[in-house]
Amino acid sequence: MLLVTYDLWAFVSENWRELLDGLVNTLKASAIAIVGSLVIGVVLGASRAHRLPVVSQLTAVYVEIIRNTPILVQIFLFFFALPQAGILLDQFTVAWLSVMIWGGAFNSENFRAGFEAVPLRYREAGYALGFGPLGTFMNVTLPIGGRISLPSSINTYISVVKNTSLMYVIGYEELTTTAINISNLSLETLESLTVLAVVYLALVWGLSAGIRVLESRLALPETR
User: Where are the domains of the chain?
Assistant: First the structure.
């Protein structure tokens, strides 16, 4: 046990700069994708919940396509297929864009369900106070529906972070790619993958714990 611990510590001591760079790249792509998927989820979820003509139907098509095709195929499409149409995206752009679009599709359903769960009497109260449709959404439906959809959206954000590991297929220097490259050069496969698993575990657990705290603070009074 002590020998294994020493080997891991020696591995980290030798490669911490590369691993840190990979972690930073993972965090950058994840942060952009999480924020983007949140915005997509709110906008498209609202369009479906309120049955907006055309937009609601297009959103349904988008959700079905993304949710029913592997994200790996979507990554290949952005990186290898779009250049055939004259659209060339760099590795970083493909990294955050692909997981953002994937997360946005799932989030749109999360928020749609949350918005539809807001009781009709609350919206009617908003109209009675003089709010228009947009004002009622911003002041009534969004605050309540957003809180209702928070638990399911947490799982989406966690999956967004984990899905960045698939960017090794396009050579983006995120954490997984970095660990695999180090493993290939040093033949320290056990150490590389162990450190990779520990870092992802800490990253995802930390994100989950932070959002759970936020969820408890934003919980509706009857669900506290």
Answer: 24-223
Question: pTM score, two decimals?
Answer: 0.87
CA distance 39 to 112: 13
Per CATH, which fold does 24-223 belong to? Answer: MetI-like fold (1.10.3720)
pLDDT 10s digits, 153-167: 888 999 999 999 999
How far is 28 from 16, CA to CA, in rounded Å?
Answer: 18
Are 136 and 126 in contact, with CB atoms under 8 Å apart? yes
Asked if 212 contacts 56 with a C-beta cutoff of 8 angstroms, the reply is no
What residues contact residue 224 under an 8 Å CB cut-off, 6+ apart?
216
Phi, psi (deg, nearest 5) at residue 53: -60, 145
Query: Binning pLDDT at 50, 70 and 90, where does residue 5 land?
Result: low
